[in-house]
Specification:
Belongs to the GPI family. The chain has 578 residues and is of the alpha/beta class. The chain has 21 helices and 16 strands. The protein binds 6-O-phosphono-alpha-D-glucopyranose. 6-O-phosphono-alpha-D-glucopyranose binds next to helix 5.
Length: 578
């Protein structure tokens, strides 16, 4: 089933001497050990000899998808005939970030419903989405491989009730489930009479699922060209199969990433997308972080950081540019190349070649995993966070409140929390002072060259808050000369959260939480969205602390916007003094 007429995306490398030599040597050993053939033969010994062979269903996802293209085409026809104005996808991590990229890249197709993605428990963000769509004319896609993830389940409970109210009847026909066979979500969908149930392949992990029904069902509903995406993905899959190693694009990219990280500690994979392809970064970071960030090793993806001159960066950066052919490359890349940073330039001939890019990055990540010596298909630290969160929501269900906690310092509307180890270290470094500037300065002074700073904000991901987080992260990058991540909780827990906890211990974290001006009830559950989000932040912090990470939590009491402004001002002052 090859694809006549289509051509491959263009991939070019500018690698420093040491990386280029390492890649050449690695290509020879890959050829000698026939590792590419063994990947396709699903041999787990290419990696750690663990359970990797059970997680390679993504290799055949493009072909499987094309074999079942009729199911997508029939579904698309049904959706169109249903007269929906909106499609709202409820899911997390791999189940939401693939669809989100597709939405951002392909937009709203005239004559089709508009696709929206909700991957938050923030009450303001949930309420905003409920107000944005026409609930009576929305098709809801509840998307969860396992079926047991907390967020899609409570979002389902909320939107089921909202749709029932808007329609004045059981809204089952307006709901679609995408889930793995025999999951609790399948049961829920059957009990509630969902209009459609699509099954995923249990041999594909969430982060590798975009070319399976988890990406293609929402794509079909929004009127996107599913066949074109899959044909392109298949073309790339074939290019990563039986070809000499030196012309295998996925192998080359994966080796460049793996060699740079293992030999030069050049492990901050910095995504530089053109405006049209900027959203791919959020999908790529979940793929890279969850796959590689574990047992103290891994690549740390850096998304949406504006490019700067070489002087802004440490030697730990690896730049990956993705753009459409015809779009000029970012002018800041040339000086970085000249300064000896590894730079990969990927050009898509058209937007449908995004299908190729998905597969290319998947294959490359699996290859980088071999070089790093890890199992790219497990996510031990995500599970740990889920367990910690569940303990807190269970406690809430039993007692009506979250277990009490005390800040170790309070400065006006900013309250500071940490585990005893972090709190002691910070108080000591602040010379006993407990004002915000001194504590923030103490936290920032823990940052060393080669580290990264993670701003982890458990607030609504609105454009205003994104702008705030971007402002703060760039200020930190320029002041500290390290990589920065600006993430929203709980979304990142299902993505980069794995690497922050399980990857290299080079992250310095500032978690931001806030009182919620308005909370939202969840029908059928004892807790609210605000309680869930608070429990998630605490569960996240507990695991960061258990993993010996340098972490500080700032809780904003009172009005959020004012608190964010004060925090930004205090960070600025702290930076000047550090
Ligand atoms: O699709 P679900 O089973 O709901 O999982 C959603 C997400 O949950 C976890 O965080 C996994 O680590 C992710 O890889 C996954 O995409």
């Amino acid at each position: 089933m090859s694809v006549p007429g289509n051509k491959l995306l263009s991939l070019s490398f500018a690698l420093p001497e040491q990386v280029a030599a390492g890649v050449t040597a690695a290509l020879q050993s890959w050829a000698r050990d026939k590792r590419v053939q063994r990947i396709w033969a699903r041999d787990p010994k290419v990696w750690t000899g663990g359970r990797e062979g059970e997680w390679l269903g993504w290799l055949s996802a493009p072909r499987d998808g094309l074999e079942h293209i009729k199911q997508y085409e029939d579904f698309a026809r049904d959706v169109k005939a249903g007269g929906y104005t909106d499609v709202l996808l409820l899911g997390m991590g791999g189940s939401s970030l693939g669809p989100e990229v597709l939405k951002e890249v392909f937009g709203h197709v005239p004559g089709w419903p508009e696709l929206h993605v909700l991957d938050s428990t923030d009450p303001e963000q949930v309420a905003e989405m409920a107000a944005k769509v026409d609930l009576a004319k929305t098709l809801f896609i509840v998307s969860s491989k396992s079926g047991s993830t907390l967020e899609p389940n409570i979002l389902f409970a909320y939107f089921w009730a909202a749709a029932e109210k808007a329609l004045g009847k059981a809204p089952g026909a307006h709901f679609v489930a995408v889930t793995d066979p025999n999951s609790s979500m399948e049961k829920t969908a059957k009990e509630h009479g969902f209009g459609h149930i699509f099954f995923g392949n249990p041999q594909i992990g969430g982060r590798y699922s975009v070319l399976s029904p988890f990406g293609m069902v929402p794509a079909a509903a929004a009127g996107y060209n599913v066949r074109g995406l899959l044909e392109n993905a298949l073309l790339m899959a074939e290019a990563c199969t039986n070809v000499p190693p030196e012309v295998n694009p996925g192998l080359e990219l994966g080796l460049a990433l793996g060699v740079a990280a293992t030999r030069l500690d050049c492990d901050k994979v910095t995504y530089v997308g053109s405006k049209k392809l900027a959203a791919v970064g959020a999908w790529l970071e979940q793929l890279i972080a969850e796959s590689t960030g574990k047992i103290g090793k891994g690549l740390v993806p850096i998304d949406a950081e504006a490019l700067s001159g070489p002087e802004a960066y440490g030697r730990d950066r690896f730049f990956v540019d993705l753009r459409l052919a015809g779009e000029a490359p970012n002018p800041k890349l040339k000086p970085l190349e000249a300064a000896g940073f590894p730079v990969v330039d990927i050009q898509l001939a058209d937007l449908l070649q995004l299908g190729q890019a998905f597969f290319l990055f998947e294959f490359a990540t699996a290859v980088a995993g071999v070089e790093l010596g890890i199992d790219p298909f497990d996510q031990p630290d995500v599970e740990f966070s889920k367990v910690e969160t569940r303990k807190l929501t269970t406690a809430y269900g039993e007692t009506g409140k979250l277990p009490p906690e005390e800040p170790f310092a309070v400065d006006g509307d900013l309250a500071f929390y940490a585990d005893p180890r972090n709190a002691e270290a910070l108080k000591k470094a602040a010379g006993g002072r407990t004002d915000a500037v001194s504590l923030l300065k103490a936290q920032l002074e823990r940052v060393k060259p080669g580290d990264y700073v993670g701003l982890l904000a458990y607030i609504a991901r609105t454009s205003g808050h994104i702008a705030w987080a971007q402002e703060v992260r760039h200020m930190l990058r320029d002041g500290l000369h390290v990589a920065t991540a600006a993430e929203f909780g709980p979304r990142f827990l299902h993505s980069t959260g794995q690497a922050y906890k399980g990857g290299p211990n080079t992250g310095v974290f500032l978690q931001v939480t806030s009182d919620k001006a308005k909370d939202l009830e969840i029908p059928g559950h004892p807790y609210t969205f605000g309680v869930v989000q608070a429990a998630q932040a605490r569960g996240d912090f507990d695991v960061l602390a258990a993993r010996d990470r340098r972490a500080l939590r700032v809780h904003i009491r009172g009005p959020l916007e004012e608190g964010l402004k004060k925090l930004e001002r205090d960070l600025k002052t702290a930076l000047k003094g550090s």
